[in-house]
Specification:
By secondary structure, the chain is mainly β. About 5% of the residues lie in helices and about 40% in strands. The strands form 6 sheets. It has a 16-stranded mixed sheet that branches. Strand 30 and strand 31 form a beta hairpin.
Length: about 600
């Protein structure tokens, strides 16, 4: 039995080539087919169903007897697996080159069972001989546990869940399925279950004998479940094709009622409209041509004669996340999607791509009142995560995010659902949660956010200040740098002011495409200034061109130095005492009691 670790498509894969054993202590060979779908039922039983994935997801479980050498090789491979993916042949679909066109599964990659070679699926029919299987790439459902039968011989069950890039995706390779339940599929009559549901729930309120009844609006619905033995390759194909065509629970279909002791009437029909009761179809294979499964269905009374315009199954929805590090003059943009493949769209007439990343958000609340509506964005571990700016102390400007919703088939028609500023972040293992609010928390200052103080409320060149931005930017060159301390030579000063100590404190400096806030500044002589920055530059070097913008400290003297006292946004005659806090007063009880 072979367990090599191979390189393929820039990925490292642990390849499990051993043929599985069935029966006894080795276990069974099963394949689980899943179409993730969200079902939203209404009070009356009418449903809205939305798919959560583009296609089917597989899971294969096989049992193996391990001889001493095989057990040692498997344990050694597991010990060095780390975060590598596992690749296994899909054993229920083993085929010769001649039989490859009749396989059950659509796949981009196949594996030669004899040599362990991976090759493109379309190349299999041209091979001179051998046996081939579709390649399933994923992760262990759980770490294999070996049951020791003797000191060196063991039995193990290995389950691999499809967890891979889109290039390894597996689908169902079958002709178009009928719209109604296939006539070739009949249940085993040893295990048929007839059920019903009216949604009613009963609750005791008070001490009276009759309980309160909820959900009386729900329409009555039948349900059924049965076991199937698929005795031919054709029946296996029909079952897979029909389940895939309906996309699990998503689409409804006409199906026979298996238990029908009475006449065919509206309330007890022999054929009705229903859907699968589960997203999953589990096939247990005895061999390539024999499989067992269990199927459940639920009746959909509102879809037998649907109201006009009824559309219970909806297209999938993808969310697009546009992050903007709003550096003045040089904003940095990231575009991500929670969909499994890249989505091509457009912004202001230019083509853009939204790249798949592990990202999601919680509920978005919309209100007609002015409120700092918050949501939480959760991201996984990926290299170009803009939230890492917080960890690296590299946030030079506000980080904004816009959340759009679209159909994966038409990203250009995306609709904006939310926009806000990223605030605090919380790491949790390899995940990061970011609190986002519409106004960046500014509403906590109590609109209009104007403070009674002796200093100015406005920012230099801001709306209240009124000074033009022209003539406020100085030009220079980097003279020396050491970590977050930088010395700069000023070459052009259009401000008309002589820079003194802390002249640049609170302002910013740009070198190349990087922007840093200046914490303190000091005179260094020779037209140079030493600046303490909030964080070091990543790519700056001595001699690089620099532009600087000072800040205004908000004092009366500073405002007069800029020649703008007429627009001073403070209260210069206030003292240091905070008038918003009442003075403490001590009252003593006196007089007669």
């Amino acid at each position: 039995m072979k367990f090599p670790i191979i390189d393929h498509l820039d990925h490292q894969l642990l390849l499990l080539l051993g043929r599985p054993d069935t029966g006894g202590d080795a276990g069974e060979m099963t394949v689980l087919y899943s179409f993730p779908c969200d079902v939203f039922p209404g009070e009356t039983g009418r449903e809205t169903r939305v798919p959560r994935a583009a296609g089917v997801r597989l899971e294969q479980s096989c049992g193996y007897f391990l001889k001493p050498a095989d057990a040692a090789a498997l344990r050694a491979s597991i010990a060095r697996l780390d975060d590598k993916r596992v690749a296994v042949p899909l054993w229920c679909d083993i085929s010769t080159p001649a039989g490859w066109p009749a396989r059950l599964h659509a796949t981009a990659w196949a594996v030669n069972i004899d040599t362990g070679t991976l090759l493109a699926s379309e190349a299999v029919p041209q091979q001179p001989g051998g046996f081939f299987c579709p390649l399933l790439v994923g992760k262990f459902r759980e770490r294999p546990e070996i049951t020791a039968l003797t000191e060196g011989i063991g039995a193990v069950e290995i389950a691999v869940v499809e967890d891979s890039p889109p290039g390894y995706a597996i689908g169902i390779h079958a002709p178009a399925a009928p719209a109604a339940w296939p006539g070739s599929l009949d249940p085993d009559w040893t295990d048929v279950l007839d059920t019903s549901d009216d949604g009613r729930k009963y609750e005791q309120i008070g001490r009276i004998r009759e309980r309160n009844t909820e959900n009386r609006e729900r329409a009555f619905a039948w349900g059924q479940q049965a076991a199937f033995t698929l005795r031919t390759r054709g029946q296996i194909r029909d079952m897979l094709a029909f389940f895939a065509a309906r996309r699990g629970r998503l689409e409804s279909f006409a199906a026979p009622v298996w238990f029908r002791p009475g006449p065919d009437e509206a309330k007890t029909p022999h054929v009705t409209r229903c859907r699968f009761s589960s997203d999953d179809l589990l096939l247990t294979f005895q061999d390539m041509n024999l499989a067992e499964t269990s199927i459940g269905m639920v009746q959909l009374p509102w879809e037998i004669n649907p109201p006009a315009g009824e559309q219970p199954q909806r297209p999938p929805a993808a969310f697009l996340y546009r992050f903007c590090h709003d550096i003045p003059g040089a904003p940095v943009i990231w575009r991500f999607t929670d969909w499994e493949t890249p989505l091509a769209g457009a912004e202001t007439g230019a083509a853009v791509t939204w790249f798949p990343r592990p990202i999601e958000h919680d509920s978005i609340d919309q209100d007609y009142q002015l409120a700092d509506a918050e949501t939480t964005i959760t991201t996984g571990d990926f290299g170009d995560n803009p939230l890492s700016l917080f960890f690296r102390n590299a946030l030079e400007a506000p980080l904004y995010v816009e959340i759009y919703e679209c159909s994966p088939a038409n990203p250009a028609a995306a609709v904006l659902r939310y926009a806000g500023e990223v605030g605090a972040i919380t790491p949790e293992g390899r995940k990061t949660q970011a609190r986002v609010s519409v106004f960046g928390g500014k509403l906590r200052r109590r609109v209009p956010s104007f403070y009674f103080s002796a200093t100015c409320n406005y920012e230099l060149c801001g709306p209240g200040c009124g000074l033009p931005e022209d003539g406020k930017t100085l030009t220079g060159a980097v003279y020396a740098l050491n970590g977050s301390t930088l010395t700069v030579t000023i070459t052009v000063n259009p401000t008309g002011r002589v820079p003194g100590a802390d002249f640049f404190a609170g302002g910013w400096i740009r070198v190349g495409g990087e922007l840093r806030m200046i914490v303190r500044s000091a005179l260094a002589g020779g037209g140079r200034h030493t600046l303490d920055l909030i964080s070091p530059f990543a790519g700056a070097a001595a001699g690089a061109a620099a532009t600087l913008r000072p800040a205004c400290r908000g004092t009366v003297a500073e405002c007069k130095a800029w020649g703008n006292y007429v627009n001073f946004g403070g209260h210069p005659h206030m003292g240091a005492q905070n008038i918003s806090l009442p003075e403490r007063a001590k009252k003593s009880q006196g007089g007669k009691k």
